[in-house]
Amino acid sequence: MPDVIGIRFKDCGKIYDFEVNGSGAEFKKGDCVVVESDLGLSIGSVIIGRRTVETSARELRKVLRKATAEDFKQKQDNEAFEKEAKDYCIERIMARGLPMKLVFTESTLDKKRIVFYFTADGRIDFRELVKDLAAKFKTRIEMRQIGVRDEAKIVGGFGMCGRELCCRTFLTSFEPISIKMAKQQELVLNMSKLSGICGRLMCCLSYEISDESAEIQPKDGIRVMEENTPLEDERADVSQPETVMETVSRHIETPAPAPQSAAPAFTDKPQTETAKENATGQRQEAGQGHRKRKKWRRRKFHKK
């Protein structure tokens, strides 16, 4: 079972486990170390102290050493190199007319690889662009397409609340957000007010939505009773039949009788025959009323 430590490379980034067996050094929380990541040599910060794990979902890479002054100087020099690579890449993108937006450029500590992060509406054929960059910098070039939420996390900004973006300050991953969360909070369904600077629904919509799958742990000294569990008083009343009868009689209410007009008439006749009879009765009543009006007119005429 290897011993590992948790390392983060960027602010609010994911934490990765690296093996420390055989390094011969003691790593504490907050130390800066040099590791060999998937991209190459990188400087990261220790977030989680040393611990032992049984299995790992991916192959564990080892921690090389603690970061020295030379490593920090090399990282500072790489910042100027990354800016130069970004400017040249933007120039070549405009020259070739590619529908893409370059967001960020990152280089490994030994400059053996340069990673360009960009956004685009669809897939981009950047093979000719990679050739131009490789001929210029004489190193390995990698292009990575990211989404608009990742772009907002890298660039940063301020939300409509006036605070810095959550993804820039403390969020380490993006959870799915749906309009149903806004409906549950009875918010106005105005997309201009529910969307962040990335154009997607704001991550803070999920903050007040409780996770139903998570179990709520009671505090010390508090007893949790399951649903439909009788109380202590009710349990005591079970042994006394008279008390039970009294309790039941209090809670049972006699339903109010339904009005006679609302009660349906149950007949053995089919519905079609009943409808015909109702229509016939209505016509007979209308005819009687018409004959009465005629008689009244005749009486009035004879009196005159």
Helices and strands in order, then pairings?
Elements: E1 3-8, E2 15-19, E3 32-36, E4 41-52, E5 63-66, H1 69-96, E6 101-107, E7 113-119, H2 127-137, E8 140-145, H3 148-155, H4 166-169, H5 179-184, H6 191-194, H7 232-237, H8 241-251, H9 271-303
Parallel strand pairs: 7-8
Antiparallel strand pairs: 1-2, 1-4, 3-4, 3-5, 6-7
Helix pairs in contact: 1-2
Which H/E pattern describes the elements? EEEEEHEEHEHHHHHHH
Tell me the number of strands: 8
Helix content: 25-40%
**Low-confidence runs:** 212-220, 233-254, 261-269
Q: End-to-end distance, in Å? A: 122 Å
CATH architecture of the domain at 74-146: 2-Layer Sandwich
Query: Biggest sheet: strands side by side, in what order?
Result: 2-1-4-3-5
Beta-strand portion reads 15-25%
Label the structural class.
alpha+beta
The largest pleated sheet is described as:
5 strands, antiparallel
Overall outline: elongated
The CATH class of the domain at 74-146 is identified as: Alpha Beta
Global mean pLDDT = 78
Please compute the radius of gyration using only Cα atoms: 39 Å
